[in-house]
Amino acid sequence: MRSRYRAHLCAIIIGIMGAGLFAGCASQRSTGNNATTAAPDLPYATAPLPDNGYKAKITLPNPPTKLRAGEKVTIQVRAQNASDVPWKVRGGGADNKFYIAAGDRWLKPDGTLITAQDGRYGLDRNLKPGEETEVPLLITAPKEPGDYILEVDLVQEQVAWFHDKGSPTARVKVSVVR
Question: Which pTM value belongs to this model?
Answer without folding.
Answer: 0.76
